[in-house]
Amino acid sequence: MPNALAGQTILLAEDEPLIALNLEMVLEEEGATVIAVTHIGRTDHVDPGKISGAILDVQLADGEVYDLADRLYAEGVPIVFHSGHAERTDLLTRYPGARALTKAADEDLLVKELTHAC
Length: 118
Known about the structure:
Elements: E1 9-13, H1 17-29, E2 33-37, E3 53-56, E4 59-60, E5 63-64, H2 66-74, E6 79-83, H3 88-94, E7 99-102, H4 107-117
Organism: Pontivivens insulae
Protein name: Response regulatory domain-containing protein
């Protein structure tokens, strides 16, 4: 699935450095422009209107991503949650249409879910 995300701007909210770096590289290899954040405090500048899709870890170093997810969801931005700190059914109830994968999901599966969501 080469360049499955070409031309897409993907928000990656992940605070584990190795996972974040790996996902960023995979997304860029698929043609995406990646906006990576590690702290909730650094998401205020994110304009949901410029985001094609998002991969969100629920628990970042300084808090949970629910306010950010609410903003993205309200604007119709497709979300793939990638977390070991949240109940999948709770996420899918709160964000119908979102996808939820248990961390650490296979990168190909993440790209497939994000591509499908976008």
